[in-house]
Records
---
Amino acid sequence: MTAIHWFRRDLRLGDNPALHAAAGTGDVLALYVLDPRLWASAGAPRRAYLARSLAALDAQTGGRLLVRQGDPRQVVPAVAREVAATAVHVAASYEPFGRRRDDAVEWDLEDAGVPLVRTGSPYAVAPGRVRNGSGGDYKVFTPFRRAWSEHGWRPPAPDAETTAATVTFVDGGRGDPVPDAPVPAGMTLPEAGEPAALARWAEMLDGPLTRYATERDRPDLDSTSRLSVPLKWGEIHPRTLLADLAGRGGDGAETFRSQIAWREFHADVLFHHPSARRESLTPVVPESVWVNGSTEQDLLDAWAAGRTGYPMVDAGMRQLLAEGWMHNRLRMLVASFLVKDLHVRWQRGADHFLAWLVDGDVPQNQLNWQWVAGTGRDASPYFRVFNPVTQGVKFDPAGRYVRRWVPELRDVPGRAVHEPWKLPRSAAPDYPDRIVDHATERAVSLGAYHSLR
Ligand code: FAD
């Protein structure tokens, strides 16, 4: 008897309840369907990472991962028929695209007489489960986090080694090659796959976690976990992290747990409000504030290339181009700058992030953009406009982060690096002039905001 485990956002063996549900009935065919629509829209950094993650998973299954290209609606039922599968097992999807796809595949599988069995999800608590006293969804993060903690989650399923030793993966026959997915020129990607994710988590537990509460906002210290990438691809499950944190006290563990709760909150908000993918949940400024046409494109281009003349903004954008990742403090700053200093709609920035981030993930990306733009559920108020200079002075006090990513400013010492326009031109001759004046544009944004009050 063979059951199919259809891998999607769970590219791991360990702590994978859906895989164990499949193994509970006999042999397992490990399947990954490479949907050309998703592949085309993923952006080169995510494609390159996914190709590497699939190679790592293939190695973990002893070379038994069957990759097929095509629309899952056709591919999954076809493979199910080929191997006379008893069932197709998945971890449930909760974002709008995944839900629609799974419902459609389930429908088509019915014709083949094969059930689609959903076990678990990419979250500790499935979106939609945490409800307030009147059965509705939470609008504000803090009460959500409290209720989420009280709801609790199951202990992790067996780890990777145990799973590899107990699950029998069968040969699924002819597979399709994963298309060539080069890493974009000048970019360095982290190592993909579950073993690398577990190693990164072990390193975090051994050191930076104790300093996490105080250092997590300091991009110059680089002391966050960088687990957003493996979490995005399901190379590690948040429940694994929460179980390890449970045994530890201290501010670091508590703050880290809270960040995981933000991830679960955003997934919950998108589950209840699928339109938040593209539309502001709470429009806060008149449409007339946004720039359009070639002005919008020029500003977007300068921002995307890291050539705004504001060193912290430019450093963040260049880190994105070089690593496919950006520190959270910078994500907030560059997003605020695009929306409130350049008056470009948040959706444009979110699209650029999704094209470049290796951890690019619809619920996290869209809802964080809405948080910064002041349009989300529990959002930062619109009138909070990040100041690129004071953010630099506070979170990159010696200017090390800026000098690392903006070579034109390498010779500018100390915190002067955050205001190069105050120095003689010869101090940084190749660095661009500011494209806007922050104080002026902040006043424009606040004026627009108050006009709707
Ligand atoms: P750590 O500080 O080590 O945090 C641990 C984990 O907690 C992260 O891996 C992540 O899963 C979660 N987490 C931390 N901060 C947040 C947050 N603000 N929202 C949700 N979860 C959080 N994260 C993504 O995973 N994908 C995205 O596409 C994405 N886009 C973003 C866009 C904007 C405009 C902003 C402001 C934030 C975005 N984030 C996104 C959230 C956050 O910036 C990243 O998760 C974090 O920087 C990843 O680095 P880390 O793993 O070292 O984080």
Note: The longest strand covers residues 27-34.
---
Amino acid sequence: MSLDFSKMDVSSRPKLFDFHGVAMIPIFTANWENVQNFQARPDDILIATYPKAGTTWVSQILDLLYFGKTSPERLTSLPIYERVPFLEMTIPNLVSGKDQADKLPTTPRLIKSHFPVQFVPKSFWEQNCRMIYVARNAKDNMVSYYHFDCMNNVQPAAGDWNSFFQRFMEGDMVFGSWYDHVTNWWKKTQTHSNIHYMFYEDMIEDTGREIEKLCSFIGLSPSAEEKEMIRTGVQFDNMKKNKMANYSTLPVMDFKVSPFMRKGKVGDWKNYFTVAQNEEFDADYKRKMKDPALHFRCEL
Ligand code: PPS
């Protein structure tokens, strides 16, 4: 099922439009009906994130946990975007994440989505599928997203840093507002024990501990040796070198502008936010993020 992105027209960047109250671009809405009618199975696992929060990292961990021992060749021969299809990504005559997910031969099927919680196809709820949500502090998330929009030719143009900064606070990003995304998924965990809400910063602080928590959520008990192999295998430098995890096989991304595995750090925002921007951001953040239980760390 190899995907040939080289045929894709990347001569102009897409424009954002309002889609049911969320800023989106056509590649994520074109197949809306089919995606909404996706038939989830009870053992499917949905990996949900706001873009740039650590999706690839957690996807690689889960793939290793489930299939690292039984089918290691999967991990060395298929890029991450084929092992873990991106459900809503649709490029006519080229890619349909929904079709890829339908055809996944694995059990469980690991499926990626950046949908805000209200867009998740209903069968995932009906089947009580496990969902793993990864959230990252807004400042680092914004910086990572800025570089991504600079280097990924199928995303809207990033523009300059100052305008990107304003747009992020306004929620004028693909998949909408970071604030709404992390908050609405968080609220959903209060009523749905099938959602495991993780933080990028916790993963950086202690990857082994977070793998442990993931294992108890999904009910796997790998040996200490296996866990250690996984922890080492998914360290930033190792994933950055790993062609099947680092997106270097996707021609729509221009690695001369920025690599996909860029820095992998907490606190890189300090290299981009001016003092005035930081003050403006913090004041705006306080107005938008009212739940003290949903706490993000912008430095470790
Ligand atoms: S995407 O395009 O939304 O799927 O991107 P996503 O994978 O969610 O996020 C990419 C950022 O995650 C960082 N990353 C990692 N950090 C630490 N360790 C590991 N193993 C790792 N893998 C990916 C990646 O570098 C991006 O963050 P930035 O800050 O840009 O480096």
Note: The two ends are 41 Å apart (CA to CA).
